[in-house]
Amino acid sequence: xxxxxxxxxxxxxxxxxxxxxxxxxxxxxxxxxxxxxxxxxxxxxxxxxxxxxxxxxxxxxxxxxxxxxxxxxxxxxxxxxxxxxxxxxxxxxxxxxxxxxxxxxxxxxxxxxxxxxxxxxxxxxxxxxxxxxxxxxxxxxxxxxxxxxxxxxxxxxxxxxxxxxxxxxxxxxxxxxxxxxxxx
Length: 184
Hints:
five-stranded mixed β-sheet, two-stranded antiparallel sheet
């Protein structure tokens, strides 16, 4: 686990370029690490992560490609041992509940020649964490709201207009309720 920052992504970029399929020139960076790249002033606990979630844009995630990333940059790789974080090569399905317009709210950073990272907006990351609803996600959303990087009102607006299935909507509503309650 490591406090991530932009420098970590810039060091990771050439390795991603080396091990990602040749056709991949753009990637989504979708987890809490994405916030760390654009907001270096966040408290360390909000930049702390075990992994960086990477989704190729416009290229399917194939089994063999995933195996290469896992071997070279994954959880049990020498890269992970040396850098205290790893790459999780995930499918676009993890973005299915992200509020509409998220593709336009990204921060784009050139990670290496021929590879651009599209870092999700902090509100969209917080929303996905609300959907996940784990205790650590609720704590992270509370913390990021306290910094002012994410505004609760904006999360509520995104939730109100997000056309996700009713069960998913209810799940996010429950998480929002937990975020606004005083921690016990």
